[in-house]
Amino acid sequence: DADVTQTPRNRITKTGKRIMLECSQTKGHDRMYWYRQDPGLGLQLIYYSFDVKDINKGEISDGYSVSRQAQAKFSLSLESAIPNQTALYFCATSEGRTGTSGGNTGELFFGEGSRLTVL
Amino acid sequence: GNSVTQMEGPVTLSEEAFLTINCTYTATGYPSLFWYVQYPGEGLQLLLKATKADDKGSNKGFEATYRKETTSFHLEKGSVQVSDSAVYFCALKALSGGYNKLIFGAGTRLAVHP
After folding, report:
1. For A60-71, how does the pLDDT look when each residue is reduced to its tens digit (9 = 90+)?
2. Helix, strand, coil % (nearest 5) of chain A?
3. Residues whose CB falls within 8 Å of the CB of residue A23, separated by 6 or more in sequence, listed in order
4. B102 → closest Cβ in A4, A108, A111
5. With 60 as the cut, is the pLDDT of residue A104 above it?
């Protein structure tokens, strides 16, 4: 089984619908992230969380919200989906002592991705 | 600000050819540098890294050397295989907004033909 699991893997929805992408991890890491991947743009950080009580906006948080339900779970929501949110979404985790800004190796562990299409 | 620039793809090679994928960066201070690989249908995974100038990261026959004077971290492999077909991302870790953040390049797609 994968250490970082995303559901659903594929989703097609319509403009205006609410969508939730879920991520769970068994690596025991404190830090979790949501990225968006678009062709030719690489990965852009949407939100990140250093622990259950610490959630921060990334580069492109507008139109998205997150919930850190537990150390192992981090969900991404699109309250009202729009076509330009069509993309491949990745959840990732990393090591790091809670509340510190450094000290981790920089290595991210990614899920297999959730492909979202908004019509 | 901090940024990573990679050569545009796709890069198409025959099996056993030599591979170079260029990566240059802009950063304040001395960031750690990484190459991640994304195989079809999978998430990204760390391929190699270097944490200081002149360090050479290596894994699975791939190598990259941290060149501070040219702000580069080019990925090389002497003889590619069909199984190396993937998208390769260069990244740097730098302090931004109070924490060490990974900044990715746009990715370079490699296609290796038999």
Report:
1. 999 999 999 999
2. 5, 55, 45
3. A4, A5, A6, A32, A34, A73, A74, A75, A76, A91, A111
4. A108
5. no
Tens digits of residue pLDDT in B14-56: 999 999 999 999 998 889 999 999 999 889 999 999 999 999 9
CA distance B42 to A111: 8
Q: Do B100 and A41 touch (CB under 8 A)?
A: no
Partners of A101 on chain B (C-beta within 8 Å) are: 95, 98-100
Residue that has been written with the tokens 């060490």 in this structure? B100
Classify residue B34 by its DSSP letter. E
Can you read off the two tokens belonging to residue A12?
A: 């097609």
Q: How confident is the model at residue A42 (pLDDT cuts 50, 70, 90)?
A: confident
Whole-number Cα distances in Å, A50 to A68, A81, A92, A99, B68:
10, 26, 12, 7, 31
